[in-house]
Amino acid sequence: YDQFPGEHPMLPLSIGALLLALALIGFCFYLLCGLIFNVVKGGRGINVIPNVTFWKDLPYLILDGFTFMFLCGGKMAGYDKMDEDKSVGDNNGGDEQVVETKQEIKTDDSTNSDTGGYGAI
Fold first, then answer.
1. Angle at CA 18, nearest 5°, toward 13 and 24?
2. Distance CA 121, CA 117 (A)
3. How would DSSP label each residue in 38-85?
4. Could you tell me if 48 and 35 are in contact, meaning their C-beta atoms sit under 8 angstroms apart?
5. Rounded to whole angstroms, how far apart are CA atoms 60 and 63?
6. Residue 76: which of 63, 87, 88 has the closest Cα?
7. What is the pTM for the complete model shown?
8. Nearest to 119 by CA among 42, 72, 110
9. 44 and 59 in contact (C-beta within 8 Å)?
10. Rounded to the nearest 5°, which phi and psi values hold at 25?
């Protein structure tokens, strides 16, 4: 056992290689089952890919993640800081009062029967 330190004599692949192989097999299984499901549902073209909108957005999501990481959460292009005198929906300088109204819900006793609301059979 001490001939090759760090390697197990019974495992021809490392643990990392096994996990990578399992992830690849799982992804292929997901893709195949999703394709079959979407074809049976009547999907055509690119719409047979499971979660096609996610896979279309994935490169942009990765780009956003890298942009955020390398800017350390700093200012990203396209976003401006709001001024204190500007706020959404504030036309009177913020002196508005919110008035809550409550409505009483009236129930009709004719629909409440012993049949659980499905009516008489």
1. 135
2. 11
3. HHHTT--GGGGSTTHHHHHHHHHHHHHHHHHHHTTT-PPTT--PPPTT
4. yes
5. 5
6. 63
7. 0.48
8. 110
9. no
10. -65, -40
CA distance 51 to 38: 10
Q: What is the Cα–Cα distance from 28 to 34, expressed in whole angstroms? A: 10
**Cα torsion angle, 39, 45, 47, 51, sign:** positive
CB 88 within 8 A of CB 94: no
DSSP character at residue 4: S
CB 100 within 8 A of CB 91: no
In order along its 121 residues, the chain shows pLDDT tens digits of 455 566 656 667 788 999 999 999 999 999 999 999 999 999 899 999 999 999 999 999 999 999 988 887 666 556 566 777 655 555 555 555 555 555 666 555 555 545 555 554 4
Yes or no: say if 100 and 94 are a contact pair by the CB < 8 Å rule: no
